Amino acid sequence: MIRLVFLFYFVLILFADVQGQTHIPFLEKKISVVSENQELAVVLAKIGQAGGFSFSYNPAIGDFSKLVSVKVNQKPVREILQQLLSDEYDYKERDKYIILKKSKARKVKSESKELLTISGYVKDSNGEPLSWVSIYDKASLASTVSNDYGYFSMEFHTRQLPVNLIFSKQHFVDTILPLKISGSTFNTVVLRNMPKPTPVIPPVNIDSLAKKAEEATRSFFRAYEKEPNHQNISDTIYREFQASLIPFVGTNGELCGNVINKYSFNLFGGYSLGTQAVELAGFFNLNRGDVSDVQLAGFLNMTGGKVKGVQAAGFVNLVRGDVNGVQAAGFVNTTWSNLKGAQFAGYVNVVKGNVDGAQFAGFVNCTLDSMKGFQAAGFCNYVGGTMKGTQLSGFVNVTRGHLKGTQIGFLNYANTVKGSQIGFLNFTDTSEGIPVGFLSFVKSGYHKIEIDTDELLPLNISLRTGVNAFHNILSAGINPGTGDTLLWNFGYGFGTTYKITPRTAIDFDITSSQMVKGNNFDKINLVNRAALGADFSLSKKLSLALAFTFNAQLTNSNYQNYPNIFTWTKPDVFNTTTYPAADLDLKFWWGFKAGIRFF
């Protein structure tokens, strides 16, 4: 719907441009006329001949036989008529005529409702007309914009006078024209060029995701930013209340984008410079500046400055400054600066700066700088800087800087960790805490490949990764000397290592391995093992590992095709326990393990 409104405005502007190119109004045609002591009717005929039109008037409305003199070079017809006729006549175009009528009498003192028309031209210091100049009165919010020829016209009730009419245009110095009842109603206003500031090129230092999203946000504002009053007027106007149907159709009129309102109620959508208390809209709220307290919309809230308070929308909230409060949206919350408070979204939360608070999203939370607080998302949490608090997601947690707290998800990543990572896969460069999961990789942590032998299989290999306090163990082993069919196993476990000297450490491992002959996986055949041993460093990247083990083999008591796992050595099974209700057998024995480890 917003795009349709923009399209409608664009078509109107385009149509006006085309009309302007095909026909210059007679009153704006520049002509040259020289006449000395001739009748007014004759001079008007000369003007019409030079401009390609005719005058239409009733001779009874004035003295057209009086002698006048005029000498102008390339001046608009309107200015020439103002010079000849002053305020005695009104004139307007129709077909190929300019119609002259006697001006309405102004009984200023007796009729308070009488309208006074103020008109004239706006020019630059070289005398060239200035188009699209914003002209407004701060007290009444009456406003207009000069046309393509620099002409403007406004009406005021005489009871409103005196007023200070402000003329503003981008790159020109604001000019004030005081208007009084006794003053001239036709004025030529000259605007001076503003000194050109030294250009400042802002540094570009944002991630591509933020850059693309910010460009999308700016493009949404762009249609309004091209509106003349936005470009021209740097002044700030304050109002207690605004009511509007759509932008520019409401109590603040064409100046709505230059007004900060305390209360703003918009039936379909509203546009303002800022809000200080409450803003409500059925569809969208657009604010160029700051918003305080409460902003609610059925679809969209967009704020060019800061938000302090509550911002809630059925679809999306976009803030280009800081947020200090709560953002809630059915789809997306986006803050291009810092957030202090909470974000709730059904889909995505994005903060370009720092977050001090909480983010909750059904899909993704994204903080491009640092965060202090709590992140919870159904799919992914992302922090581009440091994270102090908890990240909780259904799939991925990422902190590109330092994490001081906890990550809980399927996959966790942080540059450095002081706390814990709990997930299926954990990755970090440095950890001062404990990563708990199926597989944890700490770049500066505990990584060893072990090749060993035990009482079941002569050759085993395992990967041990994580940190000393808690590491994962993935293992596999074979016994090639069992006939035509290979006896092998695969297993998983976890362990802990405690250093007692720089070259000696104590290990405690718990593992579980499935014993397999060939490709026979029909029944459970688990060897569960607790191992207590020692690690003796032989060199910087090589160590000797020895351990005593306590073993428990769990099998199905009704299955007859289990392979004989005691073909390499024959340990003493000192206890067999049967559980008839579950059809399980449990055998216990003591064992050993000896091997070497590579760093």
How big is the Rg?
42 Å
- Described by the principal axes of the CA atoms, the overall outline is rod-shaped
How many strands, what sense, and barrel or not for the largest sheet?
22 strands, mixed
Structural class given helices, strands, pairing?
A: mainly beta
Number of domains: 4
Beta content comes to: over 45%
Give the overall pLDDT as a whole number. 85
Q: Helix count, per DSSP?
A: 5
User: Helical proportion?
Assistant: 10-25%
Strand runs, count:
43
Q: Termini distance?
A: 64 Å
Report low-confidence residues grouped into runs of 5 or more.
1-21, 105-112
Report on this model:
The chain is mainly beta and 599 residues long. It folds into 4 domains: 20-102, Phage tail protein beta-alpha-beta fold, CATH 3.55.50; 115-191, Sandwich (Immunoglobulin-like), CATH 2.60.40.1120; 211-226 and 234-441; 446-598, Porin, CATH 2.40.160. It is 11% helix and 56% strand. It has 5 helices and 43 strands. The protein has a 22-stranded mixed sheet that branches. Strand 7 and strand 8 (143-145) form a beta hairpin.
Question: Could you give a short description of this structure?
Answer:
By secondary structure, this protein is mainly beta.
What's the topology here?
Elements: H1 2-22, E1 30-39, H2 40-51, E2 54-56, E3 67-76, H3 77-85, E4 89-94, E5 97-102, E6 115-124, E7 134-136, E8 143-145, E9 151-157, E10 163-168, E11 175-179, E12 186-191, H4 208-225, H5 228-232, E13 237-246, E14 249-250, E15 259-266, E16 269-272, E17 274-281, E18 284-287, E19 291-297, E20 300-303, E21 307-313, E22 316-319, E23 323-329, E24 332-335, E25 339-345, E26 348-351, E27 355-361, E28 364-367, E29 371-377, E30 380-383, E31 387-393, E32 396-431, E33 434-436, E34 439-442, E35 446-454, E36 459-466, E37 471-479, E38 487-501, E39 504-517, E40 525-539, E41 542-556, E42 573-579, E43 584-598
Parallel strand pairs: 2-5, 6-12, 13-15, 15-17, 16-18, 17-19, 18-20, 19-21, 20-22, 21-23, 22-24, 23-25, 24-26, 25-27, 26-28, 27-29, 28-30, 29-31, 30-32, 31-32, 32-33, 32-34
Antiparallel strand pairs: 1-3, 4-5, 6-9, 7-8, 7-10, 10-11, 13-14, 35-36, 35-43, 36-37, 37-38, 38-39, 39-40, 40-41, 41-43, 42-43
